[in-house]
Design goal:
219 residues; alpha/beta; Rossmann fold; Alpha-Beta Plaits; 2 domains; 6-stranded parallel beta sheet; 13 strands; 28% helix
C-alpha cells in the first residue's frame, strides 16, 4: 500500500485516483477547482484538497511529508514541471511522475531523468502501472520480467562506457535497444556493443535482479 498524491482531477487524474483507491492505496487528490472532485464518483475512498499543486501549504495538507509518490497529471506541462520541482527538491519525494502533453519535450524530460507519461490515451493506466511497480523506469511487466526504459548511470564507476555483454553477464537481463544521449544513433545491440553514460536503454530484467540492476539507472 502506497501513499499517493494525485495533482489534477480531470479525466486522467480522477481515473487514476479511483484506480489507486480501488487498489487499497492511500490517495489524496489536489485540484484548484472544487467542482472537479465530482469526477471521482461515489466509491472513491481518499482525501480531496482544493488548492494549487505546487503550493507548499497545499502539498503539506495533502500529506507530502509521508508521501511515496506524487503524480502531476494536470493539463499544463509547465504546471506539472513546477509540481515535480517542488515535490522532489523541497520535500524530497523519491518518485514523481509527470504527464507530458508536448511530445517535442520528451527528449529533454529523458535527459533530465524525469519519470513521465506522454500521450492522450491510457495515461491513467500507465501512471498506475508505474506507481504499483515502484520503478520510475517501468514500461511493462511480462511474467517474471520487467521492461525498463532508462538513462544509463555509470557515475558510480571509474569508466564512461560498458559492454552489453558485461551488463548481461552480471545480471539476468537482456538489453533490447539503445539510443545515444545526443540522439546520434540508436540500435538493437550485439554482445560487443558499447553503451555510454547517459545513453537511453531499453532492457528486460528479471524481478529478482531489479534491486541490484537499479544502480545502472539514473535517478
Amino acid at each position: 500500500m502506497s501513499n499517493v498524491i494525485v495533482v489534477g482531477c480531470g479525466r486522467v487524474g480522477s481515473q487514476l485516483a479511483s484506480m489507486l483507491s480501488d487498489n487499497g492505496d492511500n490517495v489524496s487528490v489536489v485540484d484548484r477547482d472544487p467542482e472537479s472532485f465530482t469526477n471521482l464518483g461515489r466509491n472513491f475512498n481518499g482525501s480531496i484538497i482544493t488548492g494549487t499543486g505546487f503550493d507548499e501549504a497545499t502539498l503539506r495538507k495533502a500529506g507530502v511529508l509521508d508521501c511515496d509518490v506524487v503524480a502531476a497529471v494536470t493539463q499544463s506541462d509547465n504546471t506539472n514541471l513546477m509540481i515535480a520541482e517542488v515535490a522532489e527538491r523541497l520535500f524530497g519525494v523519491e518518485h514523481v511522475i509527470v504527464r507530458l502533453y508536448n511530445p517535442d519535450h520528451e527528449r529533454a524530460y529523458m535527459q533530465l531523468g524525469m519519470d513521465y507519461v506522454c500521450g492522450t490515451s491510457l495515461v491513467a493506466e500507465e501512471v498506475f502501472s508505474k506507481i504499483i511497480s515502484g520503478r520510475g523506469s517501468h514500461l511493462d511487466t511480462f511474467g517474471d520480467y520487467e521492461v525498463l526504459r532508462f538513462s544509463l548511470d555509470l557515475s558510480w564507476t571509474d569508466r564512461h562506457s560498458i559492454r552489453v555483454a558485461d551488463i548481461e553477464h552480471d545480471h539476468d537481463v537482456r538489453i533490447i535497444a539503445f539510443e545515444r544521449s545526443d540522439g546520434s544513433a540508436n540500435s538493437i545491440p550485439g554482445m560487443d556493443s558499447v553503451l555510454y553514460h547517459g545513453d537511453t536503454v531499453l532492457a528486460c530484467v528479471h524481478h529478482n535482479y531489479i534491486e541490484d540492476f537499479s544502480k545502472l539507472i539514473q535517478d
